[in-house]
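Subject: Protein entry, chain in single-letter code together with its fold tokens

Area: Proteins and the way their chains fold up in space.

Attached in line: The record itself begins immediately under this heading.
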Amino acid sequence: FHEHAVYDGPAQIDYILKETKQKSLLYVGLSQGTLMFFTMMSEKPEYNDKVKAFAGLAPFNKLVHMVVPPVALIAPFAEPLLRFANLLGLYEVLPQNSPALPIARIFCSLPRNRVLCSFIGDNFANLGSRYINETRVPLYLCHTPAGTSMKNVIHFDQLVKSKKAQKFDYGKVINRVYYGQRRPPLYKIANVKTDVGIFWSKGDQFVPPANVKILLRELGSRVKKNHYIDDEYYTHLSFAIALVNAKYLYPDLLEFLERYRGS
């Protein structure tokens, strides 16, 4: 996500502003997209002037209270396993060309397997099956998991274990080469100057309410919209695919964005 934040995100913003001949835009981020925003503003604070307002869905800049059971269980062992995979020349996690994905799509397309697929999705991906169309699960599996790099997974594992918003930890020796110090530097949430809207939910296990409350305190007066969905069945992925978003999310999200349209 660091590379997304310091290279891809700024390039996308600059391209959009160039093509539309605008001076600033609205940024809506979900999950890692919110982490990208906070990281981008930490490392490239000049982009505050190019973002009128930021709407963060399931937002986080650190992972202090993540409670997804499988993730919490494997976190202590994830980094050594992933580094070993790197030694074997494996640099990608869950790539789109993985043979497991078409098998999963076929399996979950069978009506008798939908309950099992929803159960797995709820417990491993915080799917929120109560508010989805289960017949579309095979379609979702065409696009997710979308894959990521080993380094990104290791970085996330470091965030879970350190409970800090910190840069990638290469180890004490190599950290001195990259950062000039033994420990990785922290990202600077204080560099966020643009107006922020926070959209979070009771049922999110990846970014639970306790985690968001820390973020709200850190952002302080920059938060201009604080929208909490008080429903334990509305989960992390519900922000993207829930059938109730027209009621729970979109009206408040659009109201926040409309404040800045044309400004």
Observations:
- The chain has twelve helices and six strands.
- The mean pLDDT is 84.
